[in-house]
Design goal:
By secondary structure, this protein is of the alpha+beta class. The chain is 30% helix and 25% strand. The protein has 14 helices and 25 strands. The strands form seven sheets. A five-stranded mixed sheet has the order 5-25-24-21-20. β3 and β4 form a beta hairpin. α2 crosses α5 and α3 packs across α12. It starts with a strand and ends with a strand.
Length: 464
């Protein structure tokens, strides 16, 4: 927000004037009101694998992150280029694998990769779209320097918090939105429904019937599944609510079974079809993959897109973008060491105290080591993991992430953030102006994941 000690950056100028006129105690009360609103609404998530595991409220900070139109436009252009390349990459690796033949991506990263589905080979989804919904995690390290941390192309979550954060801010501080021309994010469900309808399968007749497939109430993101189904005005279903009938996936209704045309699935690949994948799955729909391959349904995101989330594949994204778009990547990757390579592993082991190490299939901040914040014993234990399964890890330098202000006891204090813009892909690419800003609430921390103690804040993209 500030350049130097007292100079306010242009996007924050009106907000800063407003803030200086506020009473710290009143703002503290407003923060309590926001928390009560989230609790009443049921905006929670679940944490797994910890002693304190269970349902939690995501902390919400009242100070918005504000971006100028020119900043956002540059970022959006780079995101669109990257998303187009990701879809082209997925289409290629499930067909001719030209990028492998050209020597740009090693075959070993695709063959035998647990996220690569042989069942998708030779099949092209309706509209040629694999990644219908993408959440691209981005960090800022300088005035005009943005890096992509990762591409979430399986089932990216967090969009409900983006929308609820905005609704909360508009309810509590309507005067701020009168003073600042902020682009809307609350239109996301409308655009999501339009986007899903645009990729209806060949078997669809008339207006497409859309449903959200959830693993159920015990899933960490169940609130979001129910929220999006409600906001789109479509059915929220579980695997037990539907069946394969006459070559279609049909759901039970009071008037009998009705075919579904498009399923927005929030169930992982392994559990999607017990006939094709994990036979013990009780979450998926038996036979859905055959119906899908025969043109009877669209699945968003397409099965097998998880390989583009692989952090080893991520390290080749600059080459992937240039290969499919013919232009250098507008958004840069964080420099990445592939531990599967002997020289890289040696470097990583010698410099663990300076690096962040991540599992190639990891997510949510789990299974990672932040070297500078870890103890000597933690680094030594992690080094043994690296030596045992080097191909399972990549390592990156710790970046000097930008900070934005949060409210602490009525005063402003800097904290590190990242940004997850949400992208919809169908007949066109739609990027919602803003996204979910995740903030590390602990002073000095670089870990923003809600599962690791992070919070969220509203993200404003100004119209002018």
């Amino acid at each position: 927000m500030l350049q130097g000690k007292d100079q306010v950056r242009d996007p924050y100028s009106r907000f800063y004037e407003w803030f200086c006129e506020q009473d710290g105690e009143t703002l503290g009360q407003k923060a309590g009101e926001a928390e009560a609103f989230f609790r009443r609404t049921g905006i929670t998530f679940n944490v797994y694998g910890q002693e304190e595991a269970g349902e939690r409220l995501i902390p919400f900070d009242l100070v918005p992150r504000i971006m100028a139109k020119a900043e956002w436009d540059r970022l959006a252009e780079g995101i669109e280029q990257r998303v187009i390349a990701l879809n082209a990459f997925l289409d290629d690796i499930y067909h001719d694998q030209e990028i492998v033949k050209a020597g740009k991506v090693p075959a070993r990263l695709i063959e035998g990769n647990e996220a690569y589905l042989p069942q998708m080979q030779g099949f092209r989804p309706p509209g040629g779209v694999y990644t219908h919904i993408i959440g691209t995690d981005i960090v800022r390290v300088g005035e005009d320097e943005f890096y992509v941390l990762e591409d979430n192309a399986r089932t990216p979550s967090g969009v409900s918090y983006m929308i609820e954060n905005r609704e909360t801010m508009m309810q509590m501080f309507p005067e701020l939105f009168a003073q600042n021309r902020v682009r809307p994010v609350e239109t996301y469900p409308h655009h999501l429904r339009r986007s899903l309808a645009a990729v209806a399968p060949p078997a669809c007749e008339g207006t497409p019937t859309i449903a959200v497939l959830t693993p159920g109430i015990y899933n960490s993101a169940y609130f979001e599944h129910a929220f999006l189904a409600d906001q789109m005005g479509v059915e929220l279903i579980e695997g037990s609510d539907v069946a394969e009938i006459d070559g279609r996936i049909q759901m039970r209704t009071t008037e009998g079974y009705k075919p579904i045309d498009v399923i927005y699935r929030r169930v992982d690949d392994a559990f999607l079809d017990p006939k094709m994948f994990n036979p013990a799955s009780m979450l998926g729909i038996p036979g859905i993959m055959d119906v899908y391959r025969n043109g009877g349904i669209t699945i968003a995101n397409a099965p097998g897109t998880g390989i583009s989330d692989d952090k080893a594949i991520y390290s080749y994204m600059p080459e992937i973008v240039e290969f499919y778009t013919g232009k250098p990547a507008l958004l840069q990757n964080v420099p990445t060491h592939r531990c599967a390579e002997e020289d890289s592993l040696k470097y990583v082991l010698e410099n663990l105290h300076e690096l962040v190490v991540k599992e190639v299939h990891g997510s949510g901040g789990y299974g990672m080591l932040v070297g500078p914040a870890a103890s000597k014993e933690e680094r030594e234990r992690f080094a043994e993991k690296l030596k045992t399964r080097p191909g399972n890890y990549i390592a990156q330098p710790t970046l000097a992430l930008s900070t934005v202000p949060i409210l602490v006891d009525g005063e402003l204090a800097p904290r590190h953030v990242d940004l997850r813009p949400f992208v919809l892909v169908s007949d066109k690419v739609r990027i919602i102006p803003g996204g979910l800003t995740r903030v590390a609430l602990k002073e000095g921390s670089l870990v923003v994941n809600s599962s690791q103690g992070g919070g969220t804040k509203d993200t404003w993209v100004l119209r002018d």
